[in-house]
UniProtKB/TrEMBL annotation:
SUPFAM superfamilies: P-loop containing nucleoside triphosphate hydrolases. It comes from the Eukaryota. InterPro entries: NB-ARC, P-loop_NTPase. Residues 170-329 form the NB-ARC domain. It comes from Urochloa decumbens. This is NB-ARC domain-containing protein. Transmembrane segments: none annotated. PANTHER family: NB-ARC DOMAIN-CONTAINING PROTEIN, OS10G0134700 PROTEIN-RELATED.
Length: 492
């Protein structure tokens, strides 16, 4: 019965899409916009349904990934068309353009005050064509999804779901799980190794911890063991003594005798001698059913893999906007606040894809749901980003992503310089600072010298708290120097 209903729904969906395409041959602006909105809702239904199913077919995962990407691009294009200011495009002075933007923003009327311009129809039509094409491709996927086992999942709203899962990494999670559950051919003696590579703070450890918490993985392996750089290079590897490494995950007695999963986290270069020792120790202790995951910033570990490496990349601009918008507005419909949505798009662009920045700023904006405050935040961010670019030629949020020192400002206390010296993470068992980073940047926290500030607490494994080592200095003004030089000139 379910397969029959799925087939009927798939046929109706295909006919609806064809009808939309035929009607959109030369449609007005409002028709294309509404068609894209309906296609995006249809894509969300398919994606949400697929997220509750364990898909083992790699081609289907790739097709689903294409649909997710097309959905993010579609929402970004639609929101840009609806909320992007068109009235300041021809302004030569950026400062004048900014003030025009704010004044127009406060006086704008109507739900979508930039939709009247027809010259941006090209991107809108392109996004609609791309999305409908992918939906047609996944038409059969809707039917096949019913044949896959469903995963137990609570019905969350999207903003709550994003706070409790890895956004944009669903396909990567399933890729790792399929690798771990894959059974080696009978008689195979080699260990299977999966390298996961990517830049710092992109989520390699979080991805692995998320996978290891999955019940399918915990039922499949009798031990889940973790090694870090300092343990891995130590000649006294605890693993050599009866396979007694640190076991950070307890499993039931019924799983004893099953496989062993070793997770190796590398921050520096690979020590090949230590790797050889670990590899041979794993073979001796668990002749079969042992798998190894290596996470590293360096692509040198690719040669150790027995399968294609998994490379993690930063979120696209479109995916980042979807993420930021969902966190910022929560259960509030952004369409009911078009002027705030326009400001949110500008603020998101300033942050250069920083996930920490998304969590900090979205929390701040939610707590201060006021257009004047949001305008103030945008003006502040735009000012120090442009100032940093003019002085150093780099976006400060790019430096934060690389854990490099950054000099910022304070919105409420412009006479002080705020430095972020170092970033690190603490486990859920460790204490965290009481001072929040958003209260330092945007609030009136009174402190001087060096101190620690809490960035945010992750709600997903491994439940890290992210902390910054900071310093506040008084801004040196040139007025005092000029007075001294003038006095010196008068004396002479």
């Amino acid at each position: 019965m379910e397969s029959f209903l799925s087939a009927v729904l798939g046929e109706l969906m295909t006919r609806s899409i064809n009808f939309i395409i035929n009607k959109c041959f030369n449609p007005p602006v409002i028709a294309v916009e509404d068609s894209l909105q309906r296609a995006l809702l249809r894509a969300e239904v398919i994606i949400e349904e697929a997220m509750g199913i364990h898909i083992t077919n790699q081609a289907m995962r790739q097709l689903l990934g294409m649909l997710i990407d097309a959905m993010h691009r579609g929402y970004y294009t639609l929101d840009t068309f609806r909320y992007e200011p068109q009235y300041a495009e021809d302004a030569k002075d950026q400062a004048v353009s900014h003030f025009v933007f704010l004044s127009k923003l406060n006086s704008a009327t109507g739900p979508y005050f930039s939709r009247t311009s027809a010259r941006n129809m090209g991107p809108l039509r392109e996004a609609l064509g791309r999305l409908t094409s992918v939906i047609v491709d996944v038409d059969e996927l809707v039917v096949f999804l019913m044949s896959y086992p469903r995963l137990h999942r609570q019905p969350y709203s999207m903003h709550i779901l994003l706070g409790n899962c890895m956004f944009g990494r669903q396909m990567e999670v399933e890729h790792v799980i399929n690798f771990l559950l894959h059974k080696q051919p009978h008689g195979s003696e080699g260990l299977e190794v999966l390298p996961i590579i990517g830049p710092a703070r992109i989520g390699k450890s979080t991805l692995v911890a998320h996978v290891c918490k999955d019940e399918r993985i915990r039922d499949h392996f009798s031990k889940l063991l973790f090694l870090h750089d300092h343990e891995f290079t130590d000649d006294k590897l605890a693993f050599r003594e009866g396979c007694g490494m640190k076991d950070q995950n307890s499993v039931s007695k019924s799983n004893m005798g099953k496989g062993l999963l070793v997770v190796l986290e590398l921050a520096g270069d690979l020590n090949e001698d230590a790797w050889n020792k670990l590899y041979h120790a794993c073979k001796q202790c668990v002749p079969s059913g042992c798998k190894i995951i290596i996470t590293s910033r360096s692509d040198k570990v690719v040669k150790l893999g027995t399968t294609q490496p998994l490379t993690l990349k930063y979120l696209s601009h479109e995916a980042y906007w979807y993420f930021f918008k969902t966190l910022t507005f929560g259960s509030i419909d952004p369409e009911t606040h078009p002027r705030l949505t326009q400001l949110a798009m500008e603020i998101a662009r300033m942050q250069s894809g920083s996930l920490n920045g998304a969590y900090i700023t979205s929390s701040l904006l939610r707590d201060n749901f006021d257009i004047h405050f949001w305008c103030k935040v945008l003006s502040f961010l735009r000012g120090f980003v442009q100032n940093y670019l003019s002085k150093f030629g780099e976006n400060p949020f790019d430096l934060l992503n690389q854990n490099r020192p950054v000099q910022l400002g304070r919105m409420a206390v412009p006479s002080e310089v705020f430095m972020i010296c170092h970033q690190y993470q603490r486990s859920s068992q460790e204490e965290v600072p009481e001072i929040r980073i958003q209260d330092v940047i945007y609030g009136c926290v009174k402190t001087r010298g060096k101190f620690e500030a809490l960035v945010w607490r992750s709600q997903i494994p491994p439940y890290y708290s992210y902390v910054h080592t900071c310093e506040i200095r008084e801004l040196k003004t040139t007025g005092a120097k000029r007075k001294r030089s003038m006095k010196g000139g008068n004396k002479s």
